[in-house]
Design brief:
Blueprint (H helix, E strand, L loop, with lengths): L2 H9 L3 H26 L26 H6 L1 H8 L2 E2 L7 E2 L30 H11 L42 H7 L3 H7 L6 H18 L11 H20 L6 H20 L10 H16 L4 H21 L11 H19 L3 H9 L16 H10 L3 H16 L25 E4 L2 E4 L5 H10 L7 H10 L32 E8 L9 E5 L4 E5 L3 E6 L20 E5 L2 E4 L11 H8 L15 E3 L7 E3 L3 E5 L4 E8 L2 E10 L2 E8 L23
Antiparallel strand pairs: 1-2, 3-4, 5-16, 6-7, 7-8, 8-9, 9-10, 11-12, 13-14, 14-15, 15-16
């Protein structure tokens, strides 16, 4: 983040707020320098303790998956056993030391920024002895190390002797730190665990143990890319805890040396998150939600202590508050991205499932706990926070329960009839638990359908008592110990009233340009058509089993919401007909690795939108890729199933988009007081997502 960006933000604040933030910024710089110096002079691992062992997430929880579902992901499991991974558009790659990459957009690296090449296991001196001890616990028969710090598209490798605050992100060009972050989330371990009742159960359980030990030994706390973002630390901790808990529930017994090292590592994860919470007084996002979800899973899986109970209490209370803040009253997420809605929804849903299933022992421990730690953020942890958290364990607020259910409705409506996500806003393919059983067959290979929403929808349904055989439902049942939430009464936040404003009543500038588009569709496409309007998010949806269409009409006015994952897509239309995309948003491609490409996919030219010459709707900044200002917002003029009109309007400038469902198709008419631009936006293939570039 450049100083110019920080200065610009300060100029937008009242002087006393800017001064306070400046003092905090200087203070943090000083504190971080002291912490870095201290970290380099000691071993940052937490030593395994015979009196501090892994407890598990749900010791009495039961789970069952049908063998057919495991058979579907069998090829993926076999590839992961061989340490082949397909992540963020990489294709299948064998991730091991010495791998030679294909490169990204001509950028290819065989060593790191300091010119160092292999060996890849470069642990700082103070951590080396303990790392070797952990590494010695690996069952090395048929196991080879994974190169955890490799961007296996560009070939760039980050080293584990670099303090996490000193990491280069976005430099050199073409390097994507999200690649090791994604692999380092260890989300594939949960799939191994779900297959641990099958034919290859011994191989899967052994692999879970080996990969966790391998990761711990190669990534000392506070050093290297896999400690660079607390969000990923939280997601990784939850996946490690869940994978081992599932195996234990299936009857597998791990050796004490492993479980004690796991407990020590989870404790280190908890320390790192709690000391580096991604909180801010406004603009809190999925990052902070991931932090507190991680604390909930870590504290539940570890023995009771004032430390772990503080993490659990803070996690529970903050999850209640943040879910009500970050999700609008219509169930949508306030970051303005459907992909990030799915991620944040998972974080909330699985966290509340775990809260719902907490043992009486944990609940009682919350009531009697003592706060012994200071938070890393400028809010005070109340002395009675444990009692507040225990209350939420017994009874969640009605408004919160309603939002949890409405999140599901929003995700369902923003998915096609084949459960494929509509890409509105950024799409980085981020997940909390990776439980898809839907893949794409291409060139005799299976690839993840990153846009598929089935497992998430099944998880929410299970939380509200609707049973299914899906992997998401399986995890919910395990975490809740069979408890469920009561489905709220229908609250039609996404309903609409037919609205028509007579043209004569509107003071519109003179219309000077007009463009028309027509998409021919068989005449029965309107049968059982549903129209939903999510006014808080700003999207209108037409949907039945044959058609799915959206129109973006966003105000971007949620109080304190971050706008960095939104796109210049107001008045944009997506259209899916009978299994094929006619008009689809292009997603994201990449973030920091290729900044120019990040902007290409974010700007209006990547969307089916009307825009006028010399009238910028959104302002972007070169000094920070996750900030934008919507200077003109969408407004709804008229809405009905047959005809909907929306506008962009400022002073003497106006753009109108009219969407009409006529007898044999859909007509879209754009009019403006200025000359309209012509965008030629090709339709990408299905299953786009992060890392996949439009050819």
């Amino acid at each position: 983040m450049q100083l110019s960006y920080l200065f610009r933000r300060a100029m937008d604040m009242p002087p006393h707020h800017a001064f306070y933030r400046f003092i905090r910024f200087i203070w943090r710089l000083g504190v971080q320098k002291v912490k870095k110096t201290y970290a380099r002079k000691r071993c940052t691992f937490i030593s395994a303790d015979p009196n501090f062992d892994f407890v598990g997430l749900s010791p009495d929880g039961q789970w069952h998956v049908v063998s057919e579902q495991i058979d579907v992901i069998g090829e993926v499991l076999d590839r992961n056993l061989r340490h082949e991974f397909d992540m963020l558009g990489s294709g299948w790659v064998l991730v091991k030391p010495g791998y030679e990459p294909e490169g990204l957009d001509g950028q290819k690296y065989l060593c790191d920024a300091k010119g160092r090449s292999l060996p890849y296991q470069t642990v700082n001196a103070r951590n080396k002895t303990y790392a070797e001890k952990v590494h010695s616990l690996i069952n090395k028969v048929d196991y080879s190390e994974i190169d955890w710090r490799l961007d296996f598209r560009s070939g760039f490798r980050w080293y584990s002797d670099v303090y996490f605050k000193d990491l280069n992100i976005g430099y050199p060009l073409g390097t994507d730190i999200k690649m090791p972050w994604e692999l380092g989330r260890l989300q594939h371990l949960v799939r191994f665990a779900l297959a641990s009742k099958g034919k290859k159960k011994r191989a899967y359980v052994t692999e879970i143990r080996n990969q966790i030990l391998d990761f711990i030994s190669a990534n000392p706390p506070q050093f290297g890319p896999n400690w660079g973002c607390p969000m990923d630390v939280g997601i990784r901790a939850a996946n490690m805890a869940l994978a081992v808990s599932l195996c234990q529930s299936a009857g597998h017994i791990f050796d004490k040396a492993f479980t004690q090292e796991l407990a020590a590592s989870l404790r280190a994860h908890g320390h790192h998150i709690f000391n580096n919470l991604e909180w801010s007084d406004k603009g809190r996002s999925n990052h902070y939600l991931s932090d507190i979800a991680g604390l909930i899973f870590i504290a539940t899986a570890l023995p009771q202590s004032d430390e772990t109970m503080t993490w659990l209490a803070v996690g529970i209370c903050e999850m209640v508050k943040e879910t009500q803040l970050q999700f609008n009253s219509d169930g949508s997420n306030y970051e303005g991205s459907v992909g990030y809605h799915r991620l944040s929804m998972e974080l909330s849903i699985y966290s509340f499932a775990l809260i719902l299933g907490l043992s009486d022992e944990k609940k009682n421990a919350l009531k009697t706990m003592h706060v012994t730690q200071k938070s890393s953020v400028p809010y005070t942890i109340k002395d009675d926070i444990g009692k507040e958290a225990s209350f939420y364990c017994e009874s969640l607020p009605d408004d919160l329960v309603s939002r949890l259910f409405l999140m599901r409705e929003f995700l369902s409506d923003l998915s096609t009839p084949t459960d494929e996500l509509v890409q509105i806003g950024d799409m980085d393919s981020g997940r909390f638990f990776l439980l898809n059983t839907v893949f794409i067959q291409k060139n005799s290979e299976l690839y993840e359908n990153v846009l598929h929403t089935q497992s998430v929808l099944e998880a929410v349904d299970a939380l509200f008592g609707k049973k299914s055989q899906g992997l998401g439902a399986c995890i919910i049942d395990f975490l809740t110990n069979g408890r469920t939430l009561k489905k709220p009464k229908a609250r039609q936040f996404h309903s609409y009233s037919d609205k028509t404003t007579p043209p004569a009543a509107l003071a519109w500038p003179e219309i000077k340009d007009r463009k028309e588009y027509f998409f021919e569709i068989p005449t029965d496409f309107k049968k059982d058509l549903k129209l939903a309007y999510y006014s808080d998010f700003g999207v209108i949806v037409w949907k039945n089993n044959y058609l799915h269409m959206t129109l973006r009409v966003a105000k971007h006015d949620a109080q304190g919401a971050p706008m960095g994952h939104t796109h210049d897509d107001n008045l944009g239309v997506t259209l899916w007909v009978n299994g094929n995309w006619v008009k689809q948003d292009l997603g994201t491609y990449v973030y920091t690795s290729l900044p120019d490409q990040r902007r290409v996919y974010q700007k209006a030219g990547a969307h089916f939108v009307p825009r006028a010459e010399n009238w910028p709707i959104v302002e972007y900044f070169d000094d920070y890729l996750f900030d934008c200002r919507h200077k003109v917002v969408g407004e709804l003029v008229e809405i009905s199933k047959e005809r909907t009109v929306a506008k962009l309007h400022a002073d003497d400038k106006i753009i109108l988009r009219t969407v009409e469902l006529v007898e044999n198709g859909i007509r879209i008419v754009d009019t403006s007081s200025l000359q309209l631009k012509t965008f030629i936006v090709p339709s990408p293939p299905a299953n786009f997502g992060y890392g996949r570039r439009l050819q």
